[in-house]
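Please, structure for the following, as tokens.
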Amino acid sequence: MADANFLPNDLGECQRLLLAAFQQASELERVLDETAASYAALKETHQAAIDELDRLKRWIYGRRRERLIEGEGQQHLFDLQPPTTATTEESLQQQPRSQVTAHSRRRRRELDLDKLPHYRHELDVQPAEKICAGCGRAKDRIGQDETKILDYVPPKLEVHVHVRPKYACRWCQDSVVSPPPPVRPIARGIAGPGLIAQIVVAKFGDHLPLYRQEDFFTRHGLQIPRSTLCDWVQAAAELLRPLYERQKELVLQSPVLWTDDTPVTVLTGGKKGSRQGRFWTYIAAEHPYSVYDFTESRARDGPAKFLVGFQGYLHADAYGGYDHIYLGSNDAIREVACWAHARRKFFDTRDSSPRESHQILEWVGQLYDIEDRARALSAPARASLRKQEAGPVLDRIGARLAELERRALPKSALSKAVSYAQNQWRALRRYTEDGRLSIDNNVSERTLRHQAIGRKNWLFLGSQQAGPRAAVLFTILAGAKRHRIEPWTYLRELLLRLHADDSRLDEMLPDRWAANHPESILTYRLEESRQKAARQRERRQRRRALRWPT
């Protein structure tokens, strides 16, 4: 402490010293404020980097499945309320797991060998062994054993030579007559419908690139150049385009659509070598078709051009390119956001904000439990159930989001998750308006897995012109897969009928073709889907019983 003897007696000098002290204190306070602000900003940046690192580590090393593993009775840690109503099916949850027998266990599937050709091979012992060593008499045949062996015979290429005799009168100058030429998909082409169907299904259904198919056919006796295979694929796409356009026309008439996109590398041949294109899928429920579109970029003009004339609900992600479509449609196209995307944002904050994220995740789980019970209902009953049960849950989520917005760090993962949900909030609640809508956009994401798997095999599209052709072929095979049709049989008939300019396109639509050809339905796929749905339904019922015990 300064000695009072050193303080000046002059009043002016004392005022000067006090003013200097005040200025120094103000400067120190400013430096402290700047330091605190810098520290807060550094803390936010550090937390954002930690969140990003956690997401990357999970993407590389972790499980992709976004499932929460919780112990029994842990939900009491959160501010949760039980569902407002209970269903009779939930009473089944009180049964032990061992008592659930209908579809919970995977039943052993016996192979159906009756449809396959059978070849009998008679085996016998040596003649000397048919004589009894004791009495010398011939042994009697008392029975036989049969052993079935399922074997594989490699497929083969065949050449069918069609001989068409010509007839003419040697005395009259009449016209020459001969049988009509055989039907083939490509005019004056050597490839038959079965061969072209096999190439297309192998490339766009089984993800087998053409260079591997070249090796495949070489192993079976004929080396078909890759360029020839490309020409055949191009010709098939042009033949199938009328059916593609008909499905697109019907899809745009549907009042509800689901859409999503995925990238694909496209070779350009220029200095850059390649660029990124996009496959878009558009899925309808009222007209059960899945139509693909190809664009050279992710610009908004792609979906805007495809959706010309569409009016109804559009399920999509939060891609900004859709905004002008909603705004420019004068409410003719209404946005339906995806709760799976919103949930994923909070799932990624489990480590940095565990209580806040798990609170939201539990409420979203309640929404999906309601959807699970509503799936078997009609559209009006489903809308009523959502209004009665999902509405209160959504109100609680909205209130909690407003609370978290005020106290979450601006750059944190939690703040980003909250902002995403609030920006999409009106569209996230829209699925409760109509029973035909769904809570998420997962159906379109599942459809695009077909391209994601294929992209790992054929890697890229050879040219920009190949994109629209691939969209046509993907659409035809997606229809076969959606309706469980054996694709080779379906595609072979389409090639023959469309080559003959058959105008009955509606008969070739996958749902109608499947109804007229029950023998070509992959029944084992239908049974697998039913068993999987039953097991999933039972798991969810059991989880609800543990979550809300009576």
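Strands lie at 256-267, 274-284, 290-295, 312-315, 333-336, 460-461. Confidence is low (pLDDT under 50) at residues 86-106.
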